[in-house]
Specification:
Layout: E1 2-3, E2 11-12, E3 28-30, E4 34-37, E5 44-47, E6 55-57, E7 63-66, E8 68-71, E9 94-96, E10 100-103, E11 106-108, E12 118-120, E13 124-127, E14 130-132, E15 135-136, E16 142-145, E17 148-152, E18 155-157, E19 160-161, E20 168-171, E21 174-178, E22 181-183, E23 186-187, E24 194-197, E25 200-204, E26 207-209, E27 212-213, E28 220-223, E29 226-230, E30 233-235, E31 238-239, E32 246-250, E33 254-258, E34 261-263, E35 266-267, E36 279-281, E37 285-289, E38 292-294, E39 297-298, E40 301-302, E41 305-308, E42 310-311, E43 315-317, E44 323-324, E45 330-332, E46 338-342, E47 350-353
Length: 391
């Protein structure tokens, strides 16, 4: 174990040796199992100062970071070489080729071609941690490949990708996102918040808000992936084309929403006459149960969804224009009476149901989870969406 005591301005990296684009250039090479931690309060900062990435975790070197700030990392294709499945220019903050655990750790203001904060080819877990203000072409915050990405009680905020996956990009991997926030990320391609490609994904009790995609999928973009979202809120996301909230794009993956609130998202920002303000289903199976899909827009027009969906009852929509599959199994309510996004209890912000909301008591009790997004019990005839209004 390495314990880093308090130090100002922090632990700064410097370049040594020949300056070659290899492990000698300036980053910290982790070649064996290690725990790097600070004390009981605060965080120790490791600042690469743009010299190189911060940490290069090599195969066979599982690593845990506890109460550490990882910042100032910068790599490009011209400054680093490809290594064991990781492309050149990967992992501005951390390149993880062995298991990585982050506990109360912040990865911020790093940049790379892939994975501005973290690039991984091995399992990564985040607990009470933050990925903030990183930049890359793909995966502004995190770019995960061929492992398992677990994000619990954490946040991925204000990251940027010049291509896909402003917050998180996951390829051929498994994503578990729980009790977490993905917010204010930007992708100049698809997937403002989360980009999924051939991924088994489950999003639980989480909020995705204010993410922007200059192509499709403001909140979430899935391509050939299985995606299950339960007890979560997807709100105030924007896409230039389709899928302001969620875009299901390529066949081969199934999407299911259960007790989810998809509200106040916007598509067709670019004015290209596209639809899918809240949800867009271009291919594959897209099932919705006990959810609210309301107050979404395509440009200036009210538009909650576009494409063909399978409804299992208990849903509430503001409008069915452009949607197929909800007829006879969804309540149409142009005024669903939803509150603003705020702290209503629990680890993430939610949209409360206001008094006399038509979503109250509208859920399918046979398919509804036992608790809501805040872990409050659902009693009697439950409510549609992620928020259960208590008596």
């Amino acid at each position: 174990m390495v314990v880093l005591p308090d130090r100002r301005p922090g632990y700064e990296l410097s370049r040594h040796g020949s300056g070659r684009a290899d492990a000698n250039r300036g980053d910290l090479d982790v070649t064996g199992p290690i725990i790097i931690r600070h004390g009981e309060r605060g965080r120790a900062t490791i600042d690469a100062r743009g010299v190189d990435r911060v940490l290069d975790i090599q195969a066979g070197a599982p690593t845990k970071l506890a109460r550490i700030n990882v910042t100032g990392g910068e790599v490009t294709k011209g400054s680093s070489k490809a290594m064991q499945g990781a492309p050149a220019g990967a992992g501005g903050g951390v390149l993880a080729q062995a298991r990585l655990r982050l506990v109360r750790t912040v990865v911020r203001q790093n940049s790379a071609d892939s994975g501005g904060g973290i690039f991984s080819t091995a399992p990564v877990s985040l607990n009470h941690s933050r990925i903030r203000g990183n930049r890359a072409a793909v995966g502004g915050g995190i770019d995960a490949h061929a492992g398992r990405l677990l994000i619990v009680r954490s946040s991925v905020v204000a990251n940027r990708a010049t291509n896909a996956g402003g917050g998180v990009a996951v390829h051929d991997d498994t994503l578990r996102l729980g009790n977490s926030t993905v917010a204010s990320n930007v992708a100049h391609g698809s997937g403002g918040g989360v980009y999924l490609a051939k991924t088994d994904s489950r999003i639980t009790k989480s909020t995705l808000n204010d993410n922007v995609a200059h192509a499709s999928g403001g909140g979430v973009y899935q391509s050939g992936s299985d995606l299950f979202v339960v007890n979560s809120t997807i709100t105030q996301n924007r896409a230039d084309t389709t899928g302001g909230g969620v875009q299901s794009s390529v066949a081969g993956g199934d999407v299911t929403l259960n007790a989810v609130t998809v509200a106040r998202n916007v598509a067709n920002v670019s004015g290209r006459n596209t639809l899918g303000g809240g949800l867009s289903a271009k291919a594959g199976s897209f099932s919705v149960v006990s959810s609210i899909v309301a107050l979404n827009r395509a440009g200036a027009k009210a538009n909650d969804c576009h494409g063909t969906f399978e409804s299992f009852g208990g849903n509430l929509l503001s409008t069915m224009a452009g949607c197929r599959g909800f007829a006879g199994s969804a309540l149409i309510a142009p005024a669903p009476k939803l509150g603003t996004l705020q702290d209503n209890g629990g680890p993430t912000e939610t949209l409360a149901l206001l008094r006399e909301s038509p979503a109250i008591g509208n859920a399918n009790p046979k398919r509804e989870p036992a608790v809501d997004q805040r872990d409050r019990p659902r009693l009697g005839q439950p409510d549609s969406g992620a928020f259960e209004r208590m008596p």
